[in-house]
């Protein structure tokens, strides 16, 4: 890169691909949960074709790295290395962005669960509680209480999957939001890039080993993945010579491919690894490298590689505008659809085909409506103006 490229990093760079990546990751989670719901008594060809959707946790790892990247960007671009405003203002911004849609999804899930329970009691709606689903109509007052405090991910057993399963990762991310300014940023400012990543992983893996995996369903090692996102932002935008050399010399695209391949190998039980934190750490490394690679391509303004064209495509960017709502609400749609299909006594193949067609479309429709009502009003003024139509137009330019 030339000096002009170096200077361009100081200017406001529009990273539309972040929305596209976030949107595609959320859509993949939808199909991953469909894969878990699908009937397995079908042809081997169907099972092989849909096996591509079995890596749902990979997408959640991507979300965490993206979160660390996005929260670190203004810090790296600032002259002080501090979050903008006070700690209180930072927490208010995070609360306003994350909590209203979360609580709306929680109460929507509770209301839907209560309505379903009433309909089942009066034999108006068939419901098989033995059918797997990430949305449950059976929950206790304690489940509601823990969800309200966003600590349900730390409860023993499978309580974090009660009510609305995907909400567990929101609780984990919310907890990391406090660790970021209180622990990770001070370590980064004093000890540097690599130290904050190492300390973050130590911090995240300590509960895994000391508590013998009792809270592993909360994925405490996501603190380390969050720090990888911080590192990607630091490398991508720092004006320090050492980090600029690192940004310019390393083959970030190839590294992303290699780390993702290692994650696929590590995830497979055939190779005798199958350790969740190891697999997700490699996904985090791959995502961090991908972010640096894509950012370099955007800053260089040279030929756009295929992967960046996909992330910057109009519909991927538009999907990213309401990806949080899609993640929060999709299981409330697809689980009742799956229950209804099973009540019709269809063949396994018919159930799967209808499930894969109806559930994503209805989830997208409900999620966008949810976004309009419960998410967009609480966004910053800039994000409020970025409607889906605007996202499509701006990414076309």
Question: What does this protein look like?
Answer:
By secondary structure, the chain is mainly alpha-helical. The chain has one domain (3-396). Helix content is 72%, strand content 0%. It is built from 18 helices and no strands. The chain has helices at 3-8, 16-37, 44-50, 56-77, 87-121, 141-149, 167-191, 193-210, 222-237, 241-249, 252-267, 276-300, 306-311, 314-321, 323-343, 348-375, 381-385, 388-396. Helix 5 crosses helix 16 (348-375) and helix 7 crosses helix 9. The longest helix has 35 residues, at 87-121. The radius of gyration is 21 Å and the shape is globular. Residues 1-10 and 392-397 have low confidence and may be disordered.
TL;DR of this structure?
This protein is mostly helical and 397 residues long. The chain has helices at 3-8, 16-37, 44-50, 56-77, 87-121, 141-149, 167-191, 193-210, 222-237, 241-249, 252-267, 276-300, 306-311, 314-321, 323-343, 348-375, 381-385, 388-396.
């Amino acid at each position: 890169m030339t000096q002009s490229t170096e200077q361009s990093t100081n200017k406001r760079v529009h990273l539309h691909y972040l929305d596209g990546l976030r949107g595609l990751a959320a859509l993949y989670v939808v199909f991953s949960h469909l894969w878990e719901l699908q009937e397995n008594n079908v042809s081997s060809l169907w099972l092989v074709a849909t096996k591509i959707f079995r890596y749902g946790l990979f997408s959640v790892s991507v979300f965490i790295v993206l979160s660390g990247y996005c929260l670190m960007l203004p810090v790296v671009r600032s002259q002080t290395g501090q979050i903008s405003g006070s700690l209180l203002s930072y927490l208010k911004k995070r609360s306003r962005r994350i909590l209203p849609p979360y609580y709306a999804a929680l109460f929507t899930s509770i209301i839907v669960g209560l309505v379903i329970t009433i309909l089942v009691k009066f034999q108006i709606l068939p419901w098989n509680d033995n059918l797997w689903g990430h949305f449950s109509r059976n929950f206790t007052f304690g489940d509601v209480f823990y969800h309200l405090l966003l600590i349900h991910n730390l409860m023993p057993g499978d309580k974090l999957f009660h009510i609305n399963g995907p909400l567990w990762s929101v609780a984990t991310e919310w907890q990391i939001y406090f660790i970021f300014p209180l622990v990770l940023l001070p370590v980064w400012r004093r000890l540097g890039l690599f130290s904050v990543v190492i300390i973050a992983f130590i911090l995240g893996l300590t509960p895994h080993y000391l508590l013998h995996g009792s809270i592993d369903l909360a994925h405490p090692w996501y603190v380390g993945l969050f720090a990888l996102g911080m590192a990607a932002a630091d490398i991508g935008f720092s004006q320090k010579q050492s980090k600029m050399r690192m940004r310019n010399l390393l083959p970030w695209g190839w590294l992303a491919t290699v780390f993702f391949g290692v994650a696929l190998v590590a995830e497979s039980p055939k190779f005798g690894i199958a350790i969740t934190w190891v697999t997700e750490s490699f996904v985090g490394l791959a995502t961090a490298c991908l972010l640096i690679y894509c950012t370099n391509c955007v800053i260089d303004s040279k030929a756009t590689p295929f992967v960046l064209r996909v992330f910057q495509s109009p519909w991927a960017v538009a999907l990213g505008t309401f990806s949080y709502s899609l993640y929060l609400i999709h299981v409330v749609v697809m689980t009742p659809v799956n229950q209804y299909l099973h009540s019709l006594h269809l063949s396994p193949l018919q159930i799967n085909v209808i499930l894969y067609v109806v559930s994503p479309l209805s989830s997208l429709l409900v999620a966008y409506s949810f976004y309009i009502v419960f998410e967009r009003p609480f966004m910053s003024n800039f994000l409020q103006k970025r409607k889906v139509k605007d996202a499509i137009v701006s990414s076309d330019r």
